[in-house]
């Protein structure tokens, strides 16, 4: 007989804002897929009956007053104690039936994150502009950080406890998925992806994602994280551009000086000198900040290692449908 104390504690985390039409079916689907899990719905100032619908479906409902998905994720990760965390959106678009296989993959392979990479045949579920933005930002992330995921914006993820409790959430909105991806890449965590189906929202439910506004915020987040995590490359690149501009301005002056012994355009010479000084300062800033970042990375790594790795599969975990 299975000892309940040996079973991992699984928490399903569902951030929600005005999802009255979808949250009930979402909770029911995860309840059927992971009957041993506790399902938490965090209501983010909804103006409809999202909280009531979630309670009626059997979820534990809590509130987060600060508006934005990043704020909700920060609160969930801080408050909830579990061994394995399954995070999804409350809009009934993610395939809850894939959760047991993702949980099993995390436990069997001792991973820290499994990303549910979205695969949809329904155009309304995954709009063409969002597909293009995903490909573009995924490429940018891979170029800046050396590697990436195939779907960095997926909100369907399974985490280990040590990922959740070592992740200092700084984002406030939909850029949270980008920050999660960079955190995993920077700490070189063992991660994986699993293709999951992605459905259209149910009737009466509307997307909260603004393609241009949130796209700009995500791009700004990527650049900010690149500046913070890769200061040598960021400030070194700025310094290289400044040095190149200084050399272009100084080249005609050097030719004139070699021919006549005079510097006829003093303002240009001063500008070139100033640009070169700025280039050197940027390079030095990058080197100094790289030392600081390395120290921060070591602290984050130690915080991550303070929690045990996910264990092997315990008896009682739902078996994945291998025929799928």
Give the structure's gist in a few sentences.
With 324 residues, this protein is α/β, with parallel strands linked by helices. It folds into two domains: 4-228, Spore Coat Polysaccharide Biosynthesis Protein SpsA, Chain A, CATH 3.90.550.10; 231-302. The chain is 51% helix and 12% strand.
Categorize the overall geometry: elongated
- Judged by helices, strands and strand pairing, the structural class is alpha/beta
Give the class-level CATH name of the largest domain.
Answer: Alpha Beta
Strand order, largest beta sheet: 3-2-1-4-6-5-7
**What is the C-alpha radius of gyration, as a whole number of Å?**
25 Å
Low-confidence stretches: 121-125, 313-324
Tell me the CATH topology of the largest domain: Spore Coat Polysaccharide Biosynthesis Protein SpsA, Chain A
Number of domain units? 2
Q: Please, what is the CATH homologous superfamily of the largest domain?
A: Spore Coat Polysaccharide Biosynthesis Protein SpsA, Chain A
Kindly report the oligomeric state of this protein: single chain
Q: How does the major sheet shape up?
A: 7 strands, mixed
Ends: how far apart? 29 Å
The number of E-state strands comes to 7
Number of helices: 10
Question: What is the element string, with H for helices and E for strands?
Answer: EHEHEHEHEHEHHEHHH
Round the mean pLDDT to the nearest integer and report it.
85
């Amino acid at each position: 007989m299975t000892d309940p104390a040996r079973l991992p504690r699984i928490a399903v985390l569902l951030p929600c804002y005005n999802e009255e039409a979808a949250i009930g079916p979402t909770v029911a689907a995860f309840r059927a897929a992971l009957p041993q899990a506790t399902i938490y719905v965090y209501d983010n100032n909804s103006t409809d009956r999202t909280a009531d619908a979630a309670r009626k479906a059997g979820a534990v409902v809590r509130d987060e007053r600060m508006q934005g998905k990043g704020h909700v994720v920060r609160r969930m990760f801080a408050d909830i104690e579990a061994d394995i965390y399954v995070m999804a959106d409350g809009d009934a678009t993610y395939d809850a039936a894939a959760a047991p296989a993702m949980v099993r993959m995390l436990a069997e392979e001792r991973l820290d994150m499994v990303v549910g990479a979205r695969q949809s045949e329904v155009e309304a579920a995954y709009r063409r502009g969002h597909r293009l933005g995903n490909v573009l930002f995924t490429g940018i992330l891979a170029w800046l950080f050396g590697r990436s995921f195939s779907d960095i914006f997926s909100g369907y993820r399974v985490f280990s406890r040590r990922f959740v409790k070592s992740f200092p959430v700084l984002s406030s909105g939909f850029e949270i998925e980008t920050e999660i991806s960079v955190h995993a890449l920077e700490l070189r965590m063992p991660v994986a992806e699993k293709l999951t189906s992605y459905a259209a929202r149910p009737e009466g439910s509307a997307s909260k994602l603004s393609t241009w506004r949130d796209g700009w915020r995500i791009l700004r987040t990527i650049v900010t994280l690149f500046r913070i995590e890769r200061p040598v490359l960021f400030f070194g690149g700025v310094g290289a551009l400044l040095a190149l501009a200084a050399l272009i301005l100084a080249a005609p002056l050097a030719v004139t000086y070699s021919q006549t012994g005079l510097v006829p355009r003093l303002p240009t010479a001063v500008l070139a000198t100033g640009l070169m000084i700025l280039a050197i300062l940027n390079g030095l800033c990058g080197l100094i900040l790289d030392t600081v970042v390395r120290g921060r990375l070591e602290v984050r790594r130690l915080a991550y290692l303070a929690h045990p790795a996910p264990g092997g599969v315990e008896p009682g975990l739902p078996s994945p449908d291998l025929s799928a």
